[in-house]
């Protein structure tokens, strides 16, 4: 067997699942002052995947020392800085505590749907966005979200609850989401010219793009400013405004 075992990430449900080593490297590179796009270029991962890790949205609880999961060569190239790599467990606990407080301020409202049976519990914020929940089965067919137990973990700031009379496998019509061309053309100004740039950042479909629409506006502006520098300020605002209309919750595998 030539060389070390590959460390490439598995891809599940259209979303790349980074390895523990990859997530550790991303945080270490950030500690060393690299920007999101620089980390994305060095790690060969999309800037959305990088920001998910840096903002604790990777779907994994990475307690412990990140340097325990990287190679000796990488550690020599990017040595520990002021024990920054040992703060992960503390950061995780702070995030958990913040999530607990956020749940206290949540409110329930009914999200528009074809059968009126989908109820979404969403964190209170001034917005007119609509939340739509989707999941994929093993065959890739898009289905309605399944009921979740009251003890289930909060995901992406939303908890999806189905009315008891809904059928779990009710199919969600593909027309629920527009194509990327149609979406970009429907904005205040036609932005179809940026489709190629979105594809380069692994955001080439509306499903992937809308999956980060629930992020706070300031984070979205930061990500788009660094990942899509060709956008003007006005274009960036128009894109985010359009994304917020499709505040999609995606359920990725968590272990």
Number of helices: 10
Kindly estimate the percentage of residues that lie in beta strands according to DSSP. 5-15%
Secondary structure category: alpha+beta
Task: Determine the mean pLDDT.
Answer: 66
Distance between the termini: 30 Å
Instruction: State the order of secondary-structure elements, H for helix, E for strand.
Output: EEHHHHHEEEEEHHHHHE
Number of beta-strand segments: 8
Number of domains: 2
User: What would the principal axes of the Cα set say about the shape?
Assistant: elongated
Roughly what percent helix? 25-40%
- Taking pLDDT < 50 over at least 5 consecutive residues as the criterion, the unreliable ranges are 1-14, 87-174, 248-255
User: Which value, in Å, is the CA radius of gyration?
Assistant: 19 Å
Largest sheet: 3 strands, antiparallel
Q: If strands are numbered along the chain, what order do they take across the biggest sheet?
A: 3-4-7
Polypeptide structure, described:
A 3-stranded antiparallel β-sheet has the order 3-4-7. Mean pLDDT is 66; it is low at 1-14, 87-174 and 248-255. Helix 1 (20-31) packs antiparallel against helix 2 (36-43). By secondary structure, the chain is an alpha+beta fold. It is built from 10 helices and 8 strands.
